[in-house]
């Protein structure tokens, strides 16, 4: 590993990114917030899905839970406590859902995770209209966009560090063994269900926090906005584009795609959805193992840090 | 010798098929017992039931007096049962040493870091794989992959070792090496239950055999006596007028 260059380079990049709000205008700051959000979401998605092969479309369920928690509680308690509560709710939902569903395999889990996001959205909508009597909520927090950016940047760094640390921990080894052979894994004493649920929960808590931190940007929040399924699809495609089995893969996928999506939505607002769909198809067809995988194929035979079970034929066994 | 493993009236049905039919036997502490029988007689099913990969339809299994019936494999492993598989199962994305560390890291008295590296290397030396730790396990020969599998099973510090046709597919030279390896474990006091078709190995390693046919026990006793039993011979070779 080129860690000797890697660490100073990453630190320098971090300092530049942290100072960016002092030099750029509001448009660029908005762009940076969106970028930091998607880098974190895609990395958190890959932390679970890239290492277990469970393709999840539940991203926006947790993202929305975070955003809504802030909308409901921001005037009732101090902001840091609200974030803690949001993380706690995300964790609770993840454990509940994980225990109930991680025995589903392949396409069944994909469909379930998509259904989960819709279910949460409908539940929140029902609660707001029937019990609470309103649909939307306003969020008034007295800090500027640069604070949102710094929080997201910190969360992105924590996510990447956590991913790196898990890769070197017993949990990371358990995941590699499970990806190789579940029968062996269970027979050497690995609790497969808990390993997967732990990872699902960690990933879900991060997604919840992204939603919670970003929510003040909207000022006005309603279920259709914060539970928009496009968030789940964009996260997934960014992680796959970059390479979901690698530490930097999701981030490297999120940056160009986020900028491309922004450009498309600004220049082709009427055809945005069609172009998005086309892009998804092209990426899945041309780069099943992501950009990082492409570099591996071309510049050496370095073995994958994990065998992403998601792209079955990639492993070739 | 007291019984370490007690199999009591185990029955396993898959739909209408009864793979194991009211089977009972004991394995004593320190004993090497062979579970024999023609193909399809239910031996591997029985191994899977002991290791927790399959749940029995009826019956109970105790390990050192403790019920392990129906526990999932990772909990049976924690109680002290390790195994190898009929078709060798290695972890292809890991190197040889990591294959063994995987078991060290998740056993009850878990090892990690430098301690795990050292212990893995020690186990690999004992399995005849000194200085091979850094190789990718896929590049090893068949017998060396089997050695990795055995080292991995031993890394779990089992009280009971299940070997499912561990000696199958070896050439005569390798077979002798393999028999010596298991004999070494026996002499060190390991309790082993093995399923085996290689009679040379059974004679060399086991003082007692249990023979199954179509799910039921048809013989249980001293190896020489069992292998000469007319009923056992008939089960393997078929009757003269069949």
From TrEMBL, chain A:
<dbReference type="Pfam" id="PF02653">
    <property type="entry name" value="BPD_transp_2"/>
</dbReference>
<feature type="transmembrane region" description="Helical">
    <location>
        <begin position="247"/>
        <end position="266"/>
    </location>
</feature>
<dbReference type="GO" id="GO:0005886">
    <property type="term" value="C:plasma membrane"/>
</dbReference>
<feature type="transmembrane region" description="Helical">
    <location>
        <begin position="79"/>
        <end position="100"/>
    </location>
</feature>
<keyword id="KW-0812">Transmembrane</keyword>
<protein>
    <submittedName>
        <fullName>Amino acid/amide ABC transporter membrane protein 2, HAAT family</fullName>
    </submittedName>
</protein>
<dbReference type="InterPro" id="IPR001851">
    <property type="entry name" value="ABC_transp_permease"/>
</dbReference>
<feature type="transmembrane region" description="Helical">
    <location>
        <begin position="107"/>
        <end position="127"/>
    </location>
</feature>
<keyword id="KW-1133">Transmembrane helix</keyword>
<dbReference type="InterPro" id="IPR043428">
    <property type="entry name" value="LivM-like"/>
</dbReference>
<feature type="transmembrane region" description="Helical">
    <location>
        <begin position="225"/>
        <end position="242"/>
    </location>
</feature>
<keyword id="KW-1003">Cell membrane</keyword>
<feature type="transmembrane region" description="Helical">
    <location>
        <begin position="55"/>
        <end position="73"/>
    </location>
</feature>
<feature type="transmembrane region" description="Helical">
    <location>
        <begin position="28"/>
        <end position="48"/>
    </location>
</feature>
<dbReference type="GO" id="GO:0015658">
    <property type="term" value="F:branched-chain amino acid transmembrane transporter activity"/>
</dbReference>
<feature type="transmembrane region" description="Helical">
    <location>
        <begin position="188"/>
        <end position="213"/>
    </location>
</feature>
<feature type="transmembrane region" description="Helical">
    <location>
        <begin position="147"/>
        <end position="167"/>
    </location>
</feature>
<feature type="transmembrane region" description="Helical">
    <location>
        <begin position="272"/>
        <end position="295"/>
    </location>
</feature>
<keyword id="KW-0472">Membrane</keyword>
From TrEMBL, chain B:
<dbReference type="InterPro" id="IPR032823">
    <property type="entry name" value="BCA_ABC_TP_C"/>
</dbReference>
<keyword id="KW-0547">Nucleotide-binding</keyword>
<dbReference type="InterPro" id="IPR051120">
    <property type="entry name" value="ABC_AA/LPS_Transport"/>
</dbReference>
<dbReference type="GO" id="GO:0005524">
    <property type="term" value="F:ATP binding"/>
</dbReference>
<dbReference type="Pfam" id="PF12399">
    <property type="entry name" value="BCA_ABC_TP_C"/>
</dbReference>
<dbReference type="GO" id="GO:0005886">
    <property type="term" value="C:plasma membrane"/>
</dbReference>
<dbReference type="InterPro" id="IPR027417">
    <property type="entry name" value="P-loop_NTPase"/>
</dbReference>
<protein>
    <submittedName>
        <fullName>Amino acid/amide ABC transporter ATP-binding protein 1, HAAT family</fullName>
    </submittedName>
</protein>
<keyword id="KW-0813">Transport</keyword>
<dbReference type="InterPro" id="IPR003593">
    <property type="entry name" value="AAA+_ATPase"/>
</dbReference>
<dbReference type="InterPro" id="IPR003439">
    <property type="entry name" value="ABC_transporter-like_ATP-bd"/>
</dbReference>
<feature type="domain" description="ABC transporter">
    <location>
        <begin position="5"/>
        <end position="239"/>
    </location>
</feature>
<dbReference type="GO" id="GO:0016887">
    <property type="term" value="F:ATP hydrolysis activity"/>
</dbReference>
<dbReference type="Pfam" id="PF00005">
    <property type="entry name" value="ABC_tran"/>
</dbReference>
<keyword id="KW-0067">ATP-binding</keyword>
């Amino acid at each position: 590993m080129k860690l000797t260059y890697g660490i100073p380079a990453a630190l320098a990049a971090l300092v530049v990114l942290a100072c960016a709000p002092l030099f750029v205008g509001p448009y660029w700051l908005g762009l940076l917030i969106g970028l930091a959000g998607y880098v974190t979401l895609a990395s958190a998605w890959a932390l679970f899905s890239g290492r277990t092969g469970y393709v999840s479309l539940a991203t926006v369920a947790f993202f929305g839970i975070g955003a809504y928690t802030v909308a409901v509680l921001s005037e009732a308690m101090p902001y840091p406590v609200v974030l803690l509560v949001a993380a706690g709710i995300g964790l609770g939902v993840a454990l509940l859902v994980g225990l109930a569903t991680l025995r589903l395999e392949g396409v069944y889990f994909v469909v379930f995770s998509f259904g989960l996001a819709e279910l949460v959205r409908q539940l929140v909508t029902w609660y707001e209209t029937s019990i609470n009597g309103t649909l939307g909520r306003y969020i008034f927090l007295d800090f500027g966009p640069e604070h949102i950016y710094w929080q997201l940047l910190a969360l992105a760094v924590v996510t990447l560090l956590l991913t790196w640390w898990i890769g070197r921990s017993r949990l990371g080894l358990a995941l590699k063994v499970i990806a190789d052979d579940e029968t062996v894994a269970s027979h050497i004493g690995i609790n497969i269900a808990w390993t997967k649920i732990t990872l699902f929960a960690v990933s879900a808590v991060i997604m919840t926090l992204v939603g919670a931190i970003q929510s003040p940007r909207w000022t006005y929040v309603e279920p259709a906005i914060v539970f928009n399924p496009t968030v789940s699809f964009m996260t997934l495609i960014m992680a796959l584009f970059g390479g979901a089995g690698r530490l930097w893969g999701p981030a490297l996928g999120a940056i160009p795609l986020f900028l491309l999506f922004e450009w498309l939505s600004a220049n082709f607002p009427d055809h945005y959805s069609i172009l998005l769909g086309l892009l998804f198809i092209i990426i899945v067809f041309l780069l099943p193992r992501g950009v990082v995988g492409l570099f591996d194929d071309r510049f050496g035979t370095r073995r994958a840090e994990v065998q992403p079970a998601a792209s079955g034929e990639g492993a070739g066994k | 010798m007291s019984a370490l493993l007690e199999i009591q009236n185990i029955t396993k049905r898959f739909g209408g098929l009864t793979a194991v039919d009211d089977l009972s036997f004991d394995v004593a502490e320190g004993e090497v017992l062979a579970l024999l029988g023609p193909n399809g007689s239910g031996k591997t099913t029985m191994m899977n039931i002991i290791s927790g990969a399959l749940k029995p339809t009826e019956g109970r299994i105790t390990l050192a007096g403790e019920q392990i019936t129906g526990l999932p494999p990772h909990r049976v492993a924690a109680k002290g049962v390790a195994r190898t598989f009929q078709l060798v199962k290695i972890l292809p994305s890991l190197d040889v040493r990591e294959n063994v560390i995987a078991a060290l890291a998740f056993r009850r008295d878990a090892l990690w870091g430098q301690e795990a590296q050292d212990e893995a290397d020690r186990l690999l030396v004992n399995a005849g794989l000194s200085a091979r730790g850094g190789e990718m396990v896929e590049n090893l020969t068949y017998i060396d992959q089997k050695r990795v599998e055995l080292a991995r099973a031993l890394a779990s510090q089992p009280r009971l070792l299940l070997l499912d046709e561990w000696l199958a597919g070896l050439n005569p030279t390798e077979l002798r090496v393999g028999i010596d390896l298991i004999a070494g474990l026996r002499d060190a006091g390991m309790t082993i239950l093995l399923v085996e078709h290689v009679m040379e190995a059974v004679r060399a390693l086991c003082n007692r055999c249990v023979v199954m046919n179509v799910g039921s026990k048809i013989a249980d006793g001293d190896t020489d006596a069992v292998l000469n039993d007319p009923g056992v011979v008939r089960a393997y070779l078929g009757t003269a007028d069949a």
